[in-house]
Design goal:
Largest sheet: 11 strands, mixed
Distance between the termini: 54 Å
Number of helices: 6
Radius of gyration: 25 Å
Order of helices and strands: HHEHEEEHEEHEEEEHE
Shape: flat
Structural class: alpha+beta
Strand content: 15-25%
Helix content: 25-40%
Length: 257
């Protein structure tokens, strides 16, 4: 109490010095808080995908390799989606495209995603809409629509929100812009865009599946069913699987985020 009384006397006798000291402390605390918020948001806190603990990435391991992810044909992805241990399965097809037209030519990430991808991840757009199952035609052909990343939107259009319906030239095809994602969303690209993933069985480009386990299903149970399916697939299409023995495993989504 004696120290407190002495401190208050000093504050009263030197109001100018006290005001500067208090302001300096306030600015220091505010700056520290702001810096921590940025570090936490960018480096520590994961992007808030819906129920991330339920999301897994299938892979294969062989005695001579440690493959953490495996690509599949679109028709194999469709078959995997039918396995009873999975509540939902989405697919990603990494790709790049030449952006041209009214903009300076540039090769950017044009990530192909299945029609359920954004619902699977549970992330809403900043504005506009995301890719939907209806953006894949019954024939498997994708509609020519695109969702921009926040950074790509800023680079091409600044803060202009009146871009829905405008078009982009990607690999000599005209895509309509349907939405823009929030700043921190960066599924396989931070400054590119997302387009629908076609499911034409003739498409030989590989896709990477990401799965959600059904409630109550363990990773080991899912791995067992997936392994049985993959053994049958390897019997039908042996050239698409390792010749040596392989086993299946699951990695948490955070390894690829």
């Amino acid at each position: 109490m004696s120290d407190l009384k002495s401190a208050f006397r000093q504050v009263y006798k030197n109001p100018g010095f006290s005001a500067v000291a208090i302001l300096t402390l306030a600015l220091g605390i505010g700056a520290t808080t702001a810096l921590f918020s940025v570090v936490y948001g960018v480096l520590i806190s994961p992007y808030p995908y819906a129920k991330p603990g339920e999301i897994w990435a299938p892979g294969l391991r062989t005695p001579n390799s440690d493959q953490t992810m495996r690509h599949y044909r679109p028709d194999q992805f469709r078959e995997m989606s039918k396995l009873s241990v999975f509540a939902d399965v989405m697919a990603t097809g990494p790709a790049r495209a030449l952006l041209a037209g009214e903009f300076a030519p540039e090769t950017i990430g044009a990530i192909r995603v299945s029609g359920n991808a954004f619902q699977f991840l549970g992330v809403a757009p900043l504005f506009g809409r995301t890719i939907q199952p209806s953006d894949i035609q019954p024939s498997g052909e994708p509609e020519l629509v695109a969702v921009l990343s926040y950074e790509r939107w800023q680079k091409l259009f600044g803060d202009d929100r009146n871009i829905l319906g405008k078009t982009l030239k990607l690999d000599d095809q005209t895509y309509s812009i349907i939405g823009v994602m929030p700043p921190r969303f960066g599924w396989w690209t931070d400054d590119g865009l997302w387009v629908p993933l076609g499911l034409d069985s003739r498409d030989l480009r590989g896709v990477f599946p990401i799965v959600r386990l059904k409630p109550g299903v363990s990773a080991s149970a899912a791995r067992e069913q997936l392994h049985s399916w993959q053994l049958e697939s390897a019997r039908i299409n042996p050239s698409e699987f390792p010749k040596e023995d392989f086993k299946d495993h699951f990695d948490e989504l955070s390894r690829y985020d």
